[in-house]
Amino acid sequence: MAKIFLNGRIVPLEQAKISVLDRGFLYGDGVFESLRTYGRRPFLLNEHLKRLLFDAQQLKIKVPYSLSQLKTAVLKTVSANNFKEHYIKIIISRGAAKGHGLDPSNAAGKPTVIVLCEELKPYPRSLYEKGWRVIISKTPRASVPTSKIKSLCYVDNMLAMMEAKQAGADEAFMPDEKGHIVEGTVSNIFIVKRGKIITPPVAEPILQGITRALVIKLAGRAGFVVKEQIIAPKDLNTCDECFATMSGAGIVPVTYVVKKKIGVGKCGPITNALIDLCKRETSALTR
Question: Lower CB density within 10 Å: C or N end of the chain?
């Protein structure tokens, strides 16, 4: 039976309860982070917690835990679960409301803080060889304040993912209002053109992904040219390689846009080199 952290206590998942008036449930009024373990050790935990607390601050949620206390809560939750590897989700909502009303001052008390853990199954090798098939979604990534906050409101991403599944694809790349390709539903986007690695700039409506930042750092350290610049649909159709980054799977090659091959239709050499660099970064945790 999985165990979770809920407002200061480790409890069995089946016994965990929050109020039906919790503003995270009522309005998506909260933030979250997702990450994974390597060798049962949470990867880039500090970076995820810093972003979590920053995003909560943007929503003016007064988190009742420090970064150090949240880190302890995560480690206790991992320790309480007997999984070989863990998928971790940390959630902070504004807490229960006094009753109906959008006004945040309507919150009744302290924020709700949850750390979920579930078993993380190994990703198949074929994922990193054959890669993902993606679509360009009809659902735009709007330039609004929450586009840069990992909030609990993921309805637009969910609609885009539904489009992808209906088209037999693995992921949907979302455009902004100008038609630029900016972000996947669960991933950041990179393309490779003539040896140069390109990713949308942070001025676009994107989440500044933790794995995105790691890949940029590792690529630069290895001597690759990395540029933050706008990606148009034509760039996606003419690039040599494409890949997506996220905390769970790391780097996933993107080999088809609908039925059109990217490159030769399998993981490209630069993407493969970056996957190897990330493996070296995480292998130290599994020793």
Answer: C
pLDDT tens for residues 75-101? 999 999 999 999 999 999 999 998 888
Domain boundaries, the chain: 3-119, 125-286
C-beta atoms surrounding 41 within 10 Å? 16
Neighbours of 71 (CB within 10 A): 16
Three-state DSSP at 245 gives strand
CA 233 from centre of chain: 22
- The torsion of the CA quartet 51, 169, 272, 217, rounded to 10 degrees, works out to -20
Q: Can you give the pLDDT at residue 111?
A: 97
- Is the Cβ–Cβ distance between 168 and 256 less than 8 Å? no
Give the strand order in the sheet containing 3-6.
9-12, 3-6, 112-119, 86-93, 30-38, 41-42
Q: What is the pTM of this model?
A: 0.95
| Domain 125-286: CATH superfamily, name plus number | D-amino Acid Aminotransferase, subunit A, domain 2 (3.20.10.10)
Token pair for residue 122? 């190994």
**Per-residue pLDDT tens over the stretch 236-276:** 999 999 999 999 999 999 999 988 999 999 999 999 999 99
CB atoms within 10 A of CB 276: 13
Quick check: helix, strand or coil at residue 265?
Answer: coil
Which CATH topology does 3-119 take? D-amino Acid Aminotransferase; Chain A, domain 1 (3.30.470)
- Mean pLDDT to the nearest integer, 52-65: 97
**Whether the domain at 3-119 and the domain at 125-286 fall into the same CATH topology:** no
